[in-house]
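We were asked to recover a plausible sequence for a given structure. The inputs and outputs are reproduced exactly as logged, with field labels preserved.

PROBLEM: sequence recovery
POSITIONS: 345
GIVEN STRUCTURE:
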């Protein structure tokens, strides 16, 4: 089969690799029918995630059809169409028992495209298939469902829920890529008074408005001015960091009000300065997190009911064997306007 293989920082190849086989009785082999590329994959290619070893198949967001299951799998069967979660869950350990699947101690957590081969391939082995896949209803398309593998639960759990957005809050979201746009969409479930989107790219600010941002800002200075005007100088109730670079994290700590909340969602590859000398006296709460995907069933019901539109994130579509071209488009989003690229068979 063909797969996108990581060969060290800056090196990736769509190449022939062995087709995966059942290794554990809890495994399933899934034929990938729709897959996407994540900003985290780009971080891996930059060398920001050193745990990913050369030879690893990348990717953790996909939909497919079950081809084969291990002897212990009872929740899915060959022929079932499933969403493959970006987080794998053993379902039995201390963390999984309380829904913190991202911290799984039993061999799960974020493993696909990280510590085990991922989904940017024609076939993938999914460990713990009963607890790491979701059956898809007929009225949810493959391409809409792909958004449920990572970006929607990540932005909702790590940004919106961790940030504790309440009705009438002023929320600022720094970064209007796919995660930031998903945060804009899911923040609206809590009726904030204002949503401010901050990004350097005009195309992404335009997208932010389409997704529901009330106000946009193209620079840090403009963001500070706009948030100050909206809040009488107090600052945002919640600042969501959705980029993963030191400058955007530090901007969030400037934009948040005393008693406010900074919810960091971005994947950071470099240290960011934590200005405790000014933050300690302002009662600012800072949260970080890896998504648990405990919200995926809820979000799936909302997509099925038409309350959330997973398709709207997609700007570019490719055939599965156009993986290299899709990466080029996604890597150059500033020029191509790419938000989410989806590859299908």
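RECOVERED SEQUENCE:
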């Amino acid at each position: 089969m063909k797969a996108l293989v990581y060969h060290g920082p800056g090196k990736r190849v769509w190449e022939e690799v062995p087709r995966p086989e059942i290794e554990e009785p809890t495994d399933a082999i899934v034929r990938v029918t729709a897959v996407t590329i994540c900003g985290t994959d780009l971080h891996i290619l930059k060398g920001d995630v050193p745990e990913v070893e050369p030879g690893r198949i990348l990717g953790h967001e996909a939909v497919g059809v079950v081809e084969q299951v291990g002897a212990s799998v009872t929740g899915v069967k060959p022929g079932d169409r499933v969403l493959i979660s970006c987080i794998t869950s053993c379902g039995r350990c201390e963390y999984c028992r309380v829904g913190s699947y991202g911290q799984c101690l039993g061999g799960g957590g974020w493993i696909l495209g990280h510590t085990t081969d991922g989904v940017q391939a024609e076939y993938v082995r999914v460990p713990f298939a009963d607890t790491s896949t979701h059956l898809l209803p007929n009225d949810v398309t493959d391409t809409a469902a792909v958004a449920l593998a990572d970006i929607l639960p990540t932005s909702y759990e790590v940004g919106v829920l961790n940030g504790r957005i309440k009705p009438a809050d002023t929320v600022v979201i720094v970064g209007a890529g796919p995660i930031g746009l998903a945060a804009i969409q899911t923040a609206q479930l809590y009726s904030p008074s204002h949503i401010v989107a901050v990004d350097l790219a005009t195309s992404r600010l335009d997208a932010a408005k389409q997704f529901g941002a009330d106000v946009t800002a193209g620079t840090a200075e403009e963001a500070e001015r706009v948030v100050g005007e909206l809040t009488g100088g107090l600052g945002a109730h919640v600042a969501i960091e959705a980029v993963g670079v030191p400058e955007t994290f530090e901007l969030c700590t400037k934009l948040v009000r005393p008693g406010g909340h900074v919810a960091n969602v971005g994947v950071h590859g470099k240290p960011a300065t934590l200005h405790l000398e000014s933050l300690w006296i302002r009662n600012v709460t800072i949260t970080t997190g890896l998504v648990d995907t405990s919200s995926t069933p809820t979000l799936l019901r909302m997509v099925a009911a038409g309350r959330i539109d997973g398709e709207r994130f997609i700007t570019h579509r490719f055939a599965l064997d156009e993986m290299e071209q899709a990466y080029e488009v996604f890597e150059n989003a500033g020029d191509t306007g790419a938000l989410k690229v989806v590859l299908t068979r």
